[in-house]
Design a protein that fits this description.
single chain; 27% strand; elongated
Amino acid sequence: MRHWIPPHAMSRSSGFSLVELMVAIAIGLLIIAGLAGVFVNTNATQSEIEKSNRQIENGRFAVQLLTDDLRMAGFYGEFNPTELVSPATLPDICATAPADLIAALPLHVQGIDNEGGLACLPGIRAGTDILVVRRTETCIAGSGGCDAVDAALPYFQASMCNNVTELGSPTVTDRFTLALGTSGTARHKRDCTTGADRRRFRVHIYFIADSDTGTDGRPTLKRAELGAGGFSVVPLVEGIENLQVEYGMDTNNDGSPDVYHPAPGSYDGCSGSTCIDNWRNVVAVKTWLLARNNQPTPGYSDAKKYVLGTDAEGEENAVGPLGDSYKRHAYEALIRLINPSGRREL
């Protein structure tokens, strides 16, 4: 038996009215808009976190690279370079001839304060420092994990033979050899018969370039490395746009720095051999690196001032405000030069 349903009841259960449908659509659009806003904000926040993480990683890696190399500055195997006579003038850091390398041996580190334009350092960024590290490899050429002797590369030999032609010679340069490959007079081990170990001689020049490759505009920490036929430039870390250095000089010969200065070659109005000796007295190095994100942040303007040590007049070496859309962070490190400072403590 069928039940009768009033017509007005049937109309109420037949579907949504136009007003109800429009209200539902409006609410749905509001929810979608809110979710879209949350998604955009989350995505932007994640992007900024990733930029910051890359910048922090790059800054720390750059500091570690400099620290590791500086800790080995002045390592010449068994040879003590304090016996060497200082060069008459400050060495040309781009020189590659063995005679020039030998003359520069007493200066385990060297630097140029806020100057550029050197032929071996293409694209150097204006207003940044240059840092030079001289040392030998810790491994012996041809031994496990160390490349064999290459005739085109410079190698250092420290004599261990106590005879009149080597360690017993009154001429300091008879106690070692620095030459290409196996050329030159060989030095010997304690038995005065076996050839002394050869270690590859390294000169590393750190600088900031305007671009990583070509004219991409990404400031980069680079290193010019002494190799076959001259220096080759190796990009190390992107986003490093400034390098500033101060050198800790040991003025009382106790192995500890007594004064820091960005340009030992002009410290305290020095002249002649005193300026060269200031470089020989460097036993510690302070470095400041300014790292920036590789991508700009929309809507951001860098209004910060970054203090990267002091200048030659003792004033703050300040950078900024730069007013662009890149976020930055400054990194500072104090590195003891183990070999030159340790020799002074003996």
